[in-house]
Amino acid sequence: MITGVKITLLIAAVTAITSLFLGTIIAIMRKSRIKPLRVLGRLYVEIFRNIPGLFWLLFFYFVFPEILPFGWGDKLNTYIYYPIVASMIALTLDNTSYVSDIIRSGLLAVPASQREVAISTGLSRVQQYQHVILPQTFRKILPPLGTRMIHNFKNSSLCMVITAPELTWATQQIESLTFRGLEVTTLATVFYIAVSLFSGGVIIMLEKFYKIDIQSITHMEVE
Amino acid sequence: MIRFKNVNKWFGDFPVLRNINLEILRGEVIVVCGPSGAGKSTLIRTINKLEPVQDGEIIVDGHSLTNNKTNVTALRAEIGMVFQHFNLYPNKTALQNIMLAPLKVRGLRKKQAKERALKLMERVGLIEKSDMYPIQLSGGEQQRVAIARSLAMEPKIMLFDEPTSALDPELINEVLDVMISLAQEGMTMVVITHEMAFAQKVADRVVFMDKGEILEIETPSQIFVNSKHERTMEFMSKILHIPISSDHKKTE
User: Fold this and answer.
1) Do A220 and B135 touch (CB under 8 A)?
2) HEC sequence for chain B
3) C-alpha distances in angstroms, B169 versus B9, B174, B175?
4) C-beta atoms surrounding B111 within 10 Å
5) Is A131's Cβ below 8 Å from some Cβ in B?
6) Of the candidates B229, B225, B226, B187, which has an alpha carbon nearest to the alpha carbon of residue B208?
7) Count of C-beta atoms within a 10 Å radius of residue A23
């Protein structure tokens, strides 16, 4: 069961961080002047958002190795950690589609004038995003982003269907072996709730910490 | 220093700049005025290529803006711009606002950047507010920090897009004072403003624009009293609050 907890946390952490990076890239792609990039970004979001995460889990575990060429698929199937890897791939891709849209709405909420100032002081495109635009974006989207990350954490339990040894899977294993389902399920429930509440608390604390920046943004728009 | 040659610009089919020919010398202070929609903002924004032009040539500090090979990013570091709505970075303190560009573009060390920023805060009279966030500052203070921020890059040219239009009347003077001292130090400035007392004091020439065209370029005293176009007279009388066919300047 402890292993279950560790794997759950591992999957949740890796997918959260990766989807943040990927999500930022896709959100920026969708704002690009280059049409193919915009289209690609939109395509990605539509595909992964409209098809359930559970499907992608099954897809990456069962289907993906079959369609790979050169016998790579066989290597994947025999890799003992593949259920975990497949879980991470599927959940990341799924989470990214939502995260990128949240980030995109944050990007839209940063006034265009901020970018103009950054441009006019001679900052390069990358610098504009890194120092001016993205910091403001993330401060604005803390609430919905945090919520989505908690949801992603809960999605880790779906991975049991492809035998990733995370917590829910572990509880089911223990139940079938020892018939002590009640105890383990309760424990697991407590764990899930604890992590979710803790994450929620962290988000609220972050919001308070950055309150001065978020306040100022609305103040300036009023002016 | 800045030269416009037969510049034309359209937004779609709508002409916003028509046949602009203007030369601004180093150290000159140019005030641009005119009715709303005349193209003044657009004109000033073409100087640092925030707006591109479709026709004509713009040469800034020897570099052609219309030439695709010109490194505009490097050029922008030499041009400072102050906006009507201040546009400070809300998630950074006044000092951090000022320090950002020198740190990242000029590659200054943190200590040097901080020293420079503190000197500038002192120059605009706000040193005690260095660690405050924009939301904690009044409009006039925010604008002065914005000016300090642009000066941090030690630019050769300063552009001002209606810097005092969004300010309470009492706060206008503190910003104008900083601009006047800049002008007296020999900075090349292009200022869009309707503060005619300011123009009278430091402007070398006043450019009057209407409907995308430059109608007149005169010295401040000439343009208020002796303008060639009726449209200019009409506009000047409105902003100076004097009747139209008077040849007297605004009296007390």
Assistant:
1) yes
2) CEEEEEEEEEECCEEEEEEEEEEECCCCEEEEECCCCCCHHHHHHHHCCCCCCCEEEEEECCEECCCCCCCHHHHHCCEEEECCCCCCCCCCCHHHHHHHHHHHCCCCCHHHHHHHHHHHHHHCCCHHHCCCCHHHCCHHHHHHHHHHHHHCCCCCEEEEECCCCCCCHHHHHHHHHHHHHHHHCCCEEEEECCCHHHHHHHCCEEEEEECCEEEEEECHHHHHHCCCCHHHHHHHHHHHCCCCCCCCCCCC
3) 34, 10, 11
4) 8
5) yes
6) B229
7) 24
Gap from A150 CA to chain B (nearest CA, Å): 26
Max alpha carbon distance in chain A (Å)?
Answer: 68
B contact set with A (CB within 8 A): 48, 50, 73-81, 83, 85-91, 100-101, 104-105, 133-135, 139, 149-150, 153, 166
Which ipTM value was assigned to this complex? 0.83
Minimal CA–CA distance to A157: which of A171, A146, A145?
A: A171
Tens digit of each residue's pLDDT (9 = 90 or more) over A70-87: 777 777 777 788 888 888
Q: What is the model's pLDDT at position A223?
A: 39
Tell me which DSSP letter residue A61 carries.
I
Q: What's the rounded Cα separation, in Å, for the pair B27 and B18?
A: 26
Taking a C-beta distance cutoff of 8 angstroms, is the pair B100, A128 a contact? no
Sheet order of strands, B188-192 included: B79-82, B157-161, B188-192, B29-33, B205-210, B213-218
Chain B environment of A122 (Cβ under 8 Å) = 73-78, 101, 105, 153
What pLDDT digit, counting tens, does each position of B216-239 carry? 888 888 877 777 777 777 787 777
pLDDT tens-digit profile, chain A (223 residues): 788 888 888 889 999 999 999 999 999 999 888 889 999 999 999 999 899 888 998 988 888 888 887 777 777 777 788 888 888 999 999 999 999 999 999 999 999 999 999 999 989 889 999 999 999 999 889 889 999 999 999 888 888 888 888 888 888 888 888 887 888 889 889 999 999 999 999 988 888 888 755 554 444 444 3
Q: Quickly count: other Cβ atoms within 10 Å of residue B55's Cβ.
A: 14
CB-based contact A119 B76, cutoff 8 Å: yes
